[in-house]
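Protocol step 6 of 9: fold each sequence in the batch and record its C-alpha coordinates directly after the sequence line. For illustration, a two-sequence batch is reproduced in full.

Sequence one:
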Amino acid sequence: MLASPALRAAARRSAALADDALSAECEETFFVASGPGGQHRNKTESGVRLVHRPTGVAVSATERRSQLQNRLAALERLRERLAALGHEPRRRRATRPTRGSVERRIEAKKRTARKKADRRFD
Protein backbone atom coordinates (compact mmCIF):
# COMPACT_ATOMS: atom_id res chain seq x y z
CA MET A 1 0.00 0.00 0.00
CA LEU A 2 1.45 3.34 -1.04
CA ALA A 3 0.77 6.12 1.42
CA SER A 4 1.12 9.83 0.83
CA PRO A 5 3.82 11.65 2.79
CA ALA A 6 1.19 13.48 4.85
CA LEU A 7 -0.57 10.22 5.77
CA ARG A 8 2.76 8.60 6.60
CA ALA A 9 3.71 11.55 8.85
CA ALA A 10 0.32 11.45 10.63
CA ALA A 11 0.75 7.72 11.26
CA ARG A 12 4.26 8.22 12.68
CA ARG A 13 3.08 11.06 14.92
CA SER A 14 0.10 9.09 16.22
CA ALA A 15 2.10 5.89 16.83
CA ALA A 16 4.31 7.80 19.27
CA LEU A 17 1.37 9.04 21.39
CA ALA A 18 0.40 7.65 24.78
CA ASP A 19 -2.58 5.27 24.99
CA ASP A 20 -5.09 7.87 26.20
CA ALA A 21 -4.04 10.44 23.56
CA LEU A 22 -4.18 7.81 20.81
CA SER A 23 -7.59 6.67 22.05
CA ALA A 24 -8.82 10.29 21.93
CA GLU A 25 -8.00 10.40 18.20
CA CYS A 26 -10.09 7.28 17.54
CA GLU A 27 -13.76 6.60 17.01
CA GLU A 28 -14.63 3.73 19.34
CA THR A 29 -17.54 1.37 18.74
CA PHE A 30 -18.60 -1.68 20.70
CA PHE A 31 -20.38 -4.71 19.32
CA VAL A 32 -21.44 -8.21 20.30
CA ALA A 33 -18.49 -10.53 19.68
CA SER A 34 -19.49 -14.05 18.73
CA GLY A 35 -17.57 -17.25 19.32
CA PRO A 36 -16.51 -19.30 22.32
CA GLY A 37 -16.80 -17.68 25.72
CA GLY A 38 -20.26 -18.56 26.87
CA GLN A 39 -23.28 -16.47 27.63
CA HIS A 40 -21.27 -13.52 28.92
CA ARG A 41 -19.49 -13.04 25.61
CA ASN A 42 -22.57 -13.71 23.47
CA LYS A 43 -24.85 -11.25 25.28
CA THR A 44 -22.56 -8.31 26.06
CA GLU A 45 -20.96 -5.83 23.73
CA SER A 46 -17.37 -6.86 24.45
CA GLY A 47 -16.00 -6.50 20.89
CA VAL A 48 -14.12 -3.24 20.25
CA ARG A 49 -13.57 -1.52 16.91
CA LEU A 50 -11.26 1.49 16.68
CA VAL A 51 -11.16 3.79 13.65
CA HIS A 52 -8.24 6.20 13.67
CA ARG A 53 -9.75 9.41 12.27
CA PRO A 54 -6.56 11.09 10.93
CA THR A 55 -5.48 8.06 8.87
CA GLY A 56 -8.66 6.02 8.42
CA VAL A 57 -7.05 2.83 9.79
CA ALA A 58 -9.59 0.48 11.41
CA VAL A 59 -8.85 -2.40 13.80
CA SER A 60 -11.01 -4.63 15.96
CA ALA A 61 -10.48 -7.02 18.86
CA THR A 62 -12.87 -9.75 19.95
CA GLU A 63 -10.61 -12.35 21.58
CA ARG A 64 -11.47 -11.67 25.22
CA ARG A 65 -14.69 -11.64 27.18
CA SER A 66 -13.76 -8.29 28.72
CA GLN A 67 -14.37 -5.04 26.87
CA LEU A 68 -11.40 -3.42 28.65
CA GLN A 69 -9.01 -6.19 27.60
CA ASN A 70 -10.32 -6.00 24.04
CA ARG A 71 -9.84 -2.22 24.04
CA LEU A 72 -6.20 -2.63 25.10
CA ALA A 73 -5.64 -5.31 22.46
CA ALA A 74 -7.21 -3.09 19.79
CA LEU A 75 -5.01 -0.14 20.82
CA GLU A 76 -1.92 -2.33 20.59
CA ARG A 77 -3.01 -3.58 17.16
CA LEU A 78 -3.69 -0.01 16.01
CA ARG A 79 -0.25 1.08 17.19
CA GLU A 80 1.35 -1.74 15.14
CA ARG A 81 -0.67 -0.82 12.04
CA LEU A 82 0.27 2.86 12.39
CA ALA A 83 3.94 1.95 12.78
CA ALA A 84 3.73 -0.16 9.62
CA LEU A 85 1.97 2.65 7.76
CA GLY A 86 4.54 5.20 8.95
CA HIS A 87 7.50 3.06 7.85
CA GLU A 88 9.18 4.45 4.77
CA PRO A 89 11.06 1.81 2.78
CA ARG A 90 14.60 2.62 1.73
CA ARG A 91 15.04 3.65 -1.87
CA ARG A 92 16.65 1.00 -4.03
CA ARG A 93 19.64 2.00 -6.08
CA ALA A 94 20.25 0.31 -9.39
CA THR A 95 23.54 -1.58 -9.46
CA ARG A 96 25.51 -3.23 -12.21
CA PRO A 97 27.01 -6.71 -12.03
CA THR A 98 30.74 -6.75 -11.33
CA ARG A 99 33.14 -7.73 -14.08
CA GLY A 100 34.07 -10.91 -12.19
CA SER A 101 30.44 -12.03 -11.89
CA VAL A 102 29.86 -11.41 -15.61
CA GLU A 103 32.97 -13.44 -16.48
CA ARG A 104 31.89 -16.29 -14.19
CA ARG A 105 28.43 -16.38 -15.74
CA ILE A 106 29.83 -16.44 -19.28
CA GLU A 107 32.32 -19.16 -18.36
CA ALA A 108 29.51 -21.28 -16.88
CA LYS A 109 27.51 -20.86 -20.10
CA LYS A 110 30.52 -21.91 -22.17
CA ARG A 111 31.01 -25.01 -19.97
CA THR A 112 27.38 -25.99 -20.46
CA ALA A 113 27.65 -25.43 -24.22
CA ARG A 114 30.79 -27.62 -24.41
CA LYS A 115 29.07 -30.35 -22.38
CA LYS A 116 26.07 -30.33 -24.74
CA ALA A 117 28.30 -30.20 -27.82
CA ASP A 118 30.14 -33.33 -26.63
CA ARG A 119 26.81 -35.21 -26.50
CA ARG A 120 26.06 -34.62 -30.20
CA PHE A 121 26.52 -37.37 -32.75
CA ASP A 122 28.46 -36.45 -35.90
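Sequence two, same batch, same settings:
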Amino acid sequence: MKVKDLMTKTVFICAAEDPVIIVAKKMMDQDVGMLVVVDDNLTKKPIGVISDRDILNRVLLKKLDPEKVTAEEIATKKIVVITETATINEATAMMKKNQIKKLVVLDDMDNLKGILSQSDVVKQFISISEQLADLSASL
Protein backbone atom coordinates (compact mmCIF):
# COMPACT_ATOMS: atom_id res chain seq x y z
CA MET A 1 0.00 0.00 0.00
CA LYS A 2 1.23 3.46 -0.92
CA VAL A 3 1.14 6.72 1.02
CA LYS A 4 -1.23 8.22 -1.57
CA ASP A 5 -3.80 5.51 -0.71
CA LEU A 6 -4.08 6.60 2.94
CA MET A 7 -3.06 10.25 3.09
CA THR A 8 -5.45 13.06 3.77
CA LYS A 9 -5.61 14.99 0.52
CA THR A 10 -7.10 18.15 1.97
CA VAL A 11 -4.17 20.12 3.34
CA PHE A 12 -4.71 23.34 5.22
CA ILE A 13 -2.02 25.90 4.55
CA CYS A 14 -0.93 29.36 5.50
CA ALA A 15 1.47 31.73 3.79
CA ALA A 16 4.85 32.46 5.35
CA GLU A 17 3.93 36.13 5.85
CA ASP A 18 0.59 35.41 7.56
CA PRO A 19 0.41 36.83 11.09
CA VAL A 20 0.06 34.16 13.78
CA ILE A 21 -3.39 35.49 14.71
CA ILE A 22 -4.57 34.57 11.18
CA VAL A 23 -2.87 31.17 11.44
CA ALA A 24 -4.66 30.46 14.72
CA LYS A 25 -7.99 31.53 13.22
CA LYS A 26 -7.45 29.22 10.23
CA MET A 27 -6.73 26.32 12.60
CA MET A 28 -9.86 27.07 14.60
CA ASP A 29 -12.07 27.49 11.51
CA GLN A 30 -10.83 24.23 9.99
CA ASP A 31 -10.67 22.36 13.31
CA VAL A 32 -7.07 21.24 12.74
CA GLY A 33 -4.02 21.30 14.95
CA MET A 34 -1.43 21.88 12.22
CA LEU A 35 -0.98 23.95 9.09
CA VAL A 36 1.65 23.62 6.40
CA VAL A 37 3.48 26.90 5.86
CA VAL A 38 4.03 27.62 2.18
CA ASP A 39 6.35 30.13 0.55
CA ASP A 40 3.35 31.72 -1.13
CA ASN A 41 -0.22 30.79 -1.98
CA LEU A 42 0.59 30.43 -5.67
CA THR A 43 3.41 27.87 -5.70
CA LYS A 44 2.41 26.23 -2.39
CA LYS A 45 5.92 24.92 -1.79
CA PRO A 46 6.11 23.81 1.85
CA ILE A 47 8.72 25.59 3.95
CA GLY A 48 7.55 24.51 7.39
CA VAL A 49 4.71 23.48 9.64
CA ILE A 50 2.97 25.17 12.54
CA SER A 51 1.07 23.35 15.24
CA ASP A 52 -1.23 24.76 17.86
CA ARG A 53 1.49 23.86 20.34
CA ASP A 54 3.99 26.00 18.41
CA ILE A 55 1.67 28.99 18.79
CA LEU A 56 1.34 28.36 22.50
CA ASN A 57 5.06 27.82 23.17
CA ARG A 58 6.63 30.23 20.68
CA VAL A 59 4.19 33.13 20.87
CA LEU A 60 1.75 33.14 23.77
CA LEU A 61 4.07 31.90 26.52
CA LYS A 62 6.75 34.33 25.34
CA LYS A 63 4.15 37.11 25.39
CA LEU A 64 4.77 38.03 21.75
CA ASP A 65 2.13 39.85 19.74
CA PRO A 66 0.32 37.31 17.49
CA GLU A 67 -0.65 40.13 15.16
CA LYS A 68 3.01 41.00 14.50
CA VAL A 69 4.75 37.61 14.55
CA THR A 70 4.56 35.79 11.20
CA ALA A 71 4.04 32.13 10.43
CA GLU A 72 7.55 31.88 9.04
CA GLU A 73 9.07 33.19 12.27
CA ILE A 74 7.62 30.42 14.44
CA ALA A 75 7.29 27.55 11.95
CA THR A 76 9.19 24.33 12.39
CA LYS A 77 11.35 24.49 9.30
CA LYS A 78 12.86 21.04 9.50
CA ILE A 79 9.85 19.30 8.06
CA VAL A 80 9.87 15.60 7.37
CA VAL A 81 8.48 14.83 3.95
CA ILE A 82 7.69 11.70 2.02
CA THR A 83 6.61 11.10 -1.55
CA GLU A 84 3.12 9.93 -2.31
CA THR A 85 4.54 6.82 -4.00
CA ALA A 86 6.41 5.63 -0.90
CA THR A 87 5.08 2.61 0.94
CA ILE A 88 3.21 2.77 4.22
CA ASN A 89 6.04 0.75 5.79
CA GLU A 90 8.52 3.43 4.73
CA ALA A 91 6.24 6.14 6.09
CA THR A 92 5.76 4.51 9.49
CA ALA A 93 9.50 3.86 9.76
CA MET A 94 10.14 7.53 9.00
CA MET A 95 7.61 8.62 11.65
CA LYS A 96 9.22 6.34 14.21
CA LYS A 97 12.77 7.44 13.37
CA ASN A 98 11.88 11.14 13.58
CA GLN A 99 9.47 10.72 16.52
CA ILE A 100 6.64 12.52 14.73
CA LYS A 101 2.97 11.82 14.12
CA LYS A 102 2.51 13.45 10.71
CA LEU A 103 4.36 13.53 7.42
CA VAL A 104 4.03 16.12 4.69
CA VAL A 105 3.40 14.33 1.40
CA LEU A 106 4.89 15.63 -1.84
CA ASP A 107 4.76 14.49 -5.44
CA ASP A 108 7.86 13.94 -7.57
CA MET A 109 7.99 17.68 -8.35
CA ASP A 110 7.95 18.63 -4.63
CA ASN A 111 4.37 19.88 -4.84
CA LEU A 112 2.25 19.54 -1.73
CA LYS A 113 -0.15 16.61 -2.11
CA GLY A 114 -1.34 15.69 1.38
CA ILE A 115 -0.65 14.79 4.98
CA LEU A 116 -0.17 11.28 6.33
CA SER A 117 -0.81 10.91 10.03
CA GLN A 118 -0.42 8.02 12.43
CA SER A 119 -4.20 8.02 12.79
CA ASP A 120 -4.58 7.48 9.00
CA VAL A 121 -2.41 4.37 9.31
CA VAL A 122 -4.19 3.13 12.45
CA LYS A 123 -7.62 3.50 10.78
CA GLN A 124 -6.41 1.33 7.89
CA PHE A 125 -4.98 -1.25 10.29
CA ILE A 126 -8.31 -1.43 12.14
CA SER A 127 -10.20 -1.79 8.87
CA ILE A 128 -7.96 -4.66 7.76
CA SER A 129 -8.29 -6.34 11.18
CA GLU A 130 -12.09 -6.11 10.96
CA GLN A 131 -12.05 -7.56 7.45
CA LEU A 132 -9.88 -10.46 8.62
CA ALA A 133 -12.19 -11.10 11.57
CA ASP A 134 -15.21 -11.15 9.22
CA LEU A 135 -13.39 -13.52 6.88
CA SER A 136 -12.46 -15.85 9.75
CA ALA A 137 -16.05 -15.86 11.01
CA SER A 138 -17.37 -16.87 7.60
CA LEU A 139 -14.99 -19.83 7.20
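Proceed to step 7 once all outputs are recorded. Observation for sequence two: Helices lie at 3-6, 20-30, 52-60, 71-74, 88-98, 118-138.
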